[in-house]
């Protein structure tokens, strides 16, 4: 069933900039409906985008991992034509079975982004719209947040596990250090 899903993939690439300390296979999704003022990639807003099957996306990701990439990042998807919440979660789950996966969302709804990232078994989440005057993740003034998703565990006096909860660690500062280190 899920193999008939299709997505508006505009570009794929290898990136060292989106997930700290990772060589990531990036999948850039188009037909973005977010319409951020000062959008850094206006080409991603074009509605006329050819669609790529889930199977082809997974094969591309597996090839990249086999060639040496150690993570995957999906750029967009939370507010794009042709993509539903369910189809995005299906994509993230299948990619997460191949390698640790992150989601870059330009949405204003952080709680929804967190839910999608958790349902999609993601390890990283970038959330928040792009605001030209505040800048992207590399700007210390940015409104956007970058989280690493882990779990917290609670055990009782007998060392029995009684609770496991998701934990979103704010690692946005890692992008600022990277800029500070540039001479
Ligand atoms: S979410 Fe990204 S691609 Fe979409 S309008 Fe905003 S900056 Fe542009």
Structure report:
With 183 residues, the protein is an alpha/beta fold. It has one domain (2-180). The protein has helices at 54-66, 85-96, 110-119, 173-180; strands spanning 6-7, 9-15, 24-29, 52-53, 71-75, 101-104, 124-127, 145-155, 161-170. The strands form two sheets. The protein has a seven-stranded mixed sheet, with helices on one face. A two-stranded antiparallel sheet has the order 1-4. Helix 2 (85-96) links the parallel strand 5 (71-75) and strand 6 (101-104). The site of iron/sulfur cluster has 12 residues, from loops. Iron/sulfur cluster binds at residues 32, 34-36, 39-41, 44-45, 106, 129-130.
Main attributes of the structure:
alpha/beta, binds iron/sulfur cluster
Short description:
23% of the residues lie in helices and 28% in strands. By secondary structure, it is an alpha/beta fold.
The figure for the number of domains is: 1
- Percentage of residues in strands: 25-35%
Helix content class = 10-25%
What value does the average pLDDT take?
93
- Tally of alpha and pi helices: 4
Query: Based on the structure, what is the oligomeric state of the protein chains?
Result: single chain
Order of helices and strands: EEEEHEHEHEEEH
The neighbouring-strand order within the major sheet is 2-3-5-6-7-8-9
Please summarize the sheet with the most strands: 7 strands, mixed
Radius of gyration: 17 Å
Shape: globular
What distance lies between the first and last C-alpha atoms, to the nearest angstrom?
51 Å
Number of strands: 9
Q: Residue ranges: pLDDT <50 for 5 or more in a row?
A: none
Tell me the structural class: alpha/beta
Ligand list: iron/sulfur cluster
């Amino acid at each position: 069933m899920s193999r008939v899903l299709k997505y508006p993939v505009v570009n794929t690439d290898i990136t060292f900039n989106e997930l700290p300390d990772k060589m990531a296979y990036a999948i850039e999704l188009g037909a973005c409906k977010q319409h951020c003022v000062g959008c850094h990639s206006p080409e991603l807003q074009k509605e006329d985008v050819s669609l790529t099957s889930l199977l082809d996306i997974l094969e591309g990701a597996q090839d990249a991992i086999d060639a040496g990439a150690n993570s995957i990042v999906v750029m967009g998807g939370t507010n794009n034509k042709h993509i539903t919440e369910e189809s995005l979660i299906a994509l993230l789950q299948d990619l997460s079975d191949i390698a640790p996966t992150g989601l870059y969302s330009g949405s204003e709804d952080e709680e929804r982004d967190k839910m999608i990232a958790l349902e999609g078994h993601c390890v990283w989440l970038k959330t928040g719209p792009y605001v030209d005057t505040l800048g992207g993740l590399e700007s210390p003034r940015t409104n956007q947040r970058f989280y690493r998703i882990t779990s917290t565990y609670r055990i009782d006096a007998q060392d029995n596990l009684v609770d496991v909860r998701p934990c979103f660690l704010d690692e946005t500062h890692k992008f600022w250090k990277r800029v500070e280190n540039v001479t």
